[in-house]
Amino acid sequence: MSFLLYRVSYRWIILFCCVLAYAVSFLVRWSYTGLAPYISEDLGLDKGALGLLGAAFFYPYALAQIPWGWLTDRIGGRLVIACGVLLSAIGLACFATAVSLWEAMAWRMVLGLVAATAFVPIASLLAQWFSAQERGLANGVYYGLGGGVGQGTAFFLMPFLTVYVLNDSVFPISGWRGALVVVALILGILGVICLLFLRSYPSGLNSSLSLGAVQPILRINQPEKESVSSFQAFYDPTFWLLGALFSASLIALRLVPAWISLYASDIFFVGWNYGRDAAVVAGGVIGVLYTIGHIFGSPLLGKLSDWLLHIGVQRLFLPIVCLGIGALLMTVFLTVIPPPWLLGAVALLLGIVLHAFPIMNAVVAEKWGVTFTGQSLGGINMIGQIVGAFVLSVSGYIGMAFSSGAADPLSEYQGIWYGVMVCGFCGVLCGWMACSRLSLSSK
């Protein structure tokens, strides 16, 4: 009984620490976006180079998914996650010292490697602490709140620090570099908090115990499966279909947040005659609206997936539908130069629907078992991250090529938004195929 009470109470502290850790991962991921106009001017970067700078993070991030997941399955998530936060703080401070594109890309690659200690290890850790009927909510909370806070900091707080605080202060480092250093100091404190309070397993448990011992709370009608082999998932066609859906979701999640603040800044600057600094901050506000959708949408969608599962609807149904809605929303950017209110509304809706994909974390745990969640999810995430990184790396060049000869400077974003739409619809198709296979296997 004491163990059950410990688990019921302490799991929320675990979730809180996971929110902090994922906020750090998301912050370092998008740390360049809100500062893109200043970094671009300082280092002499065009939009193609900015795409390369963004993608430099995601290649090592993708390749590190399985190793970090494998290590988490074997030693637990506490040290993996906490050390990742501390190393991310150091890497962000080092990124602030970059004086060329190649140096900036090198530090972005380091950040990608250490930030990969978040998504899969956290999902694996939460699978140990939360039962199946709460797993959608837990994944939605850590991804929504953590990712939203980190993304909001990158989109708005960093530009605000750069424009309105550091330029008129006694802080020894000014501009975008000073903003990064200030935030890196805060991240170091968060890393210490994670190290002190995270626990890999509920008291008295370890990863070798059976699944039944890890699920003392309410159980749903469909019992979870425990894998007989750590590599069993890789031979299942459902694994690859989920990987395709994950890839399409991550393409949207790489392109939209990478470009929406810069796109909004250009709209305010070119279309609405804002000054450059005011346009950058206004673009950050649009990014914050996207982030608000992320913060509230992901937990609500996760809880909705728990309810749908309870009434017999496949959990995967929700991320499929949401990805399709996100693809349709891109038509607004493709057909008009949106006024501020419409731009903000679309950003908010995109923030909601594009962040349903963490529900797939619970799908993986329930399909192949919690013991190998880190390794199985790491494989799916690696596929998605590599595809997403490649598309992001070429997105700036695609946009520039699409606008060749066009008088409208905003037209260079058209190719980017078309890419989101096409990949979204392809992901929906693969998702329906995976959903059908999951339905058949449960019968």
Write a brief caption for the model.
This protein is mainly alpha-helical and 443 residues long.
Describe what you observe in this structure.
There is one protein chain. The chain is mainly α and 443 residues long. It has a single domain (9-200, 236-438), classed as Growth Hormone, Chain: A, CATH 1.20.1250.20. 76% of the residues lie in helices and 0% in strands. The chain is globular. Mean pLDDT is 81; it is low at 1-6 and 205-230.
Count of strand segments: 0
Tally of helical segments = 16
- The helix fraction, in percent, is over 70%
Q: Averaging pLDDT over every residue, what do you get?
A: 81
Could you give the topology of this structure?
Elements: H1 2-29, H2 36-43, H3 47-63, H4 65-75, H5 77-95, H6 101-115, H7 119-129, H8 132-165, H9 175-197, H10 237-271, H11 276-310, H12 317-335, H13 340-353, H14 359-368, H15 373-402, H16 414-441
Which terms would index this structure?
single chain; 443 residues; mainly alpha; Growth Hormone, Chain: A; 76% helix; globular
